[in-house]
Specification:
The chain is of the alpha/beta class. The chain has a domain of 81 residues: Sandwich (Immunoglobulin-like), CATH 2.60.40. 30% of the residues lie in helices and 18% in strands. It has 15 helices and 20 strands. An 8-stranded parallel sheet has the order 10-9-8-5-2-1-12-11. A 5-stranded antiparallel sheet has the order 13-14-15-20-17. α6 packs parallel to α7 and α9 packs antiparallel against α13. The longest helix has 26 residues. It is globular, with a radius of gyration of 25 Å.
């Protein structure tokens, strides 16, 4: 009887404790997180952002602050320490590069070896959970980077070579003690045997290995699909993240993505995640190709919630950095209808990222051009994404992508920001960026308004776009010509907020005329509800 009584008491204690925990959790204030249309995202390479825990710098890989391709020491603790900086900058969403344990020496995160481990040089799972919890408490969402296409360079060939060969090779592990995990990924039959991609325009060669010898999964094999569903469902459960950014989407067959996306969404529902946002990287400047990944399949399985708008990013660079025709922007705007209706308002817009040269490299260090480009991006539909360091005037190089992956912290490679304090908020670009953030936050029309082309003058290189939402109006005026230009707009200029400065407008017959200086982007916003 005594033993039975103790068991009953223990059971009651466990149930009571569980119930109490639920009550305590229920009483905790639920952080208010931004809706999708409110997102302003910051992309950071963890290794290059901030070193918050120097003790883990040599946990894996070789730290050498003199070499661009070496580990530098940035970590999850450093990101958490800099959350106030991101908040002050106006960011409410963070995209973290992959946190998984990489092949030794890989700094960027995309050479994963152990798919269910946090890389020790970045910290621990507890560090990641704490970072996400802290971000949530500050009203910021956190998105994890997902890699389903490949592992790090762990496989070679019996034949010795690894140039592209559509007949295939016999695969062999470089080192049988250094295989990927979980164990299911250690079957060589799960990898394509064709060698390195040679011709990027050849659609068949998407099955090849990426630069660096990254081992390409046979994603058409159901065992790979099952493994990737299990792995990334686990990360969703373990971390409390708000969604996934998905790498190398175009290198994987779409049937895989439709099945994987369906499984991820079902798992998010089970975890009561009502807005788990999954957006993909289709590295291509052709809207038709990028848009195809947002559409459902024949069975109605949805595509990606959104993709990156590489077409617009290319046009922005051509116009504002390379002084080409504003018609490049028009072409990209007109192609927005190619994307699924659900994706159009959530396309991720940007001026540079970790795979492209920095905007200021293309613009020959012209920060005024960068500010104009940012003004355009933050007034457009979609979710603006800022690459770390852009706000600080980082320039990078025009060669390999590693030239554009400088450190924000002074001790790291190329860590000295040209403008001084790498986390300061007083620089010209940072100040203009924060102004744009405030405008986007204040005016719903900049986040939700319909977009129209009002006027294009290719000779003067002038473009006027409008956005409207109910009675609210926003006008985006672009003069990328070499001469002053005057434009006419409907409405009352006295009721408009202007950026970056206030210009005098003359009235004529119910319209007003505004004179734009050359190389200038101007915003005028009117919302009767905010007068």
């Amino acid at each position: 009887m005594g033993t039975r009584l103790r068991r009953i008491v223990l059971a009651v204690t466990v149930v009571t404790s569980a119930a109490l925990s639920c009550l305590l959790l229920r009483d905790e204030p639920v952080p208010t997180l931004p809706d999708r249309d409110e997102l302003s995202m910051y992309l950071l390479l963890i290794d290059r952002f901030e070193d918050g825990e120097p003790q883990n710098n040599h946990a894996s890989g070789r730290l050498d602050n003199r070499k661009a391709l070496s580990v530098q020491g940035g970590d999850l603790a450093g990101v958490e320490q800099r959350l106030p900086y991101l908040k002050a900058l106006g960011m409410n969403a963070i995209w973290l590069t992959p946190v998984q344990a990489n092949v030794g020496g890989a700094f960027h995160g995309y050479w994963i070896q152990h798919f269910k481990q946090v890389d020790p040089r970045l910290g621990s799972m507890e560090d990641l959970r704490r970072l996400i919890k802290s971000a949530h408490e500050m009203g910021m969402r956190v998105y994890l980077d997902v890699v389903c296409n490949h592992t790090g360079p762990l496989i070679g060939t019996v034949e010795g070579g690894y140039e592209w060969n559509d007949q295939g090779y016999t695969l062999a592990w470089h080192d049988s003690t250094q295989m990927p995990t979980p164990e299911v990924l250690q079957d060589l039959d799960l990898y394509h045997p064709y060698g390195l991609v040679k011709e990027w325009s050849d659609p068949y060669q998407i099955l090849g290995e990426l630069p660096g010898g990254l081992d390409d999964f046979r994603t058409e094999d159901p065992r790979v699909l099952a493994a990737m569903i299990e792995i990334w469902s686990w990360w969703m459960e373990q971390t409390g993240c708000d969604g996934f950014r998905v790498d190398t989407v175009k290198h994987v067959d779409m049937a895989f993505w439709h099945a994987w996306l369906k499984a991820m969404r079902q798992h998010a529902i089970r975890l009561r995640k009502t807005d788990f946002f999954i957006f993909g990287e289709v590295f291509a400047a052709e809207d038709e190709k990028c848009a195809s990944y947002t559409w459902p399949d024949a069975e109605g399985n949805r595509g990606f919630d959104a993709v990156f708008n590489f077409s617009l990013a290319t046009a922005v660079r051509d116009v504002f950095a390379r002084k080409q025709s504003v018609h490049r922007l028009v072409e990209s705007v007109q192609n927005l209808d190619l994307y699924s209706e659900e994706a159009r308002g959530s396309l991720l817009t940007f001026v540079d990222n970790h795979d492209k040269s920095r905007f200021l490299a293309a613009a020959e260090r012209d920060t005024t051009a960068l500010i104009r480009a940012l003004g355009f991006i933050y007034a457009m539909p979609g979710i603006p994404v800022l690459y770390y360091g852009t706000e600080q005037g980082f320039v990078g190089g025009t060669g390999p992508d590693w030239e554009n992956r400088e450190c924000m912290f002074a001790e790291g490679w190329k860590g000295a920001n040209p403008s001084g304090d790498a986390f300061g908020l007083t620089g010209r670009v940072a100040r203009r960026l924060m102004e744009l953030q405030e405008l986007r936050k204040k005016y719903h029309v900049l986040r939700q308004g319909d977009l129209n082309i009002l006027h294009e003058d290719t000779l003067a290189n002038v473009l006027v776009l409008s956005r409207h939402l109910g009675d609210a109006r926003a006008y985006l005026l672009i003069n990328e010509g070499d001469a002053v230009s005057t434009v006419s707009l409907p409405g009352d200029p006295d009721q408009c907020e202007q950026w970056p400065t206030r210009f005098f407008a003359s009235r004529t017959d119910g319209d007003f005329r505004l004179t734009l200086p050359p190389r200038h982007v101007h915003l005028m916003i009117s919302d009767p509800d905010l007068r």
